[in-house]
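[agent] plan:
  1. take the single chain provided in the ticket
  2. run structure prediction with default settings
  3. attach structure tokens to the ticket
  4. add a short note for the reviewer (M.T.)
[agent] executing step 1
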Amino acid sequence: MGHINPGRLIHIKASFPNLPQGGAEMRNHEHLMRFIMFRLALILHLFIGSTLAGTAIIAALVTGNDGWMAITFAAALGFLGGFPVSWLVARRLWRE
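[agent] step 2 finished; step 3 output follows
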């Protein structure tokens, strides 16, 4: 339970054509890869962003900041902090 099959990611990468030699085909291939990475990062952000936002809200409540402004700020901080973390995780998953 909770085991990620690395062969599945290899299968996804193998389903794309070989990397072109250069020119417009190379740019189109890079664009496709960036688009796939972006989609993967957005899916990961659903989980990572909400986890970070929830953690920040709990930290705010534990420290005694129980006003609506502090809770909203903590949630926004976790939500926005999830974007770079999601991108890093997506890039790491894609390259392995």
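[agent] step 4 note for reviewer: The mean pLDDT is 81.
[agent] ticket updated
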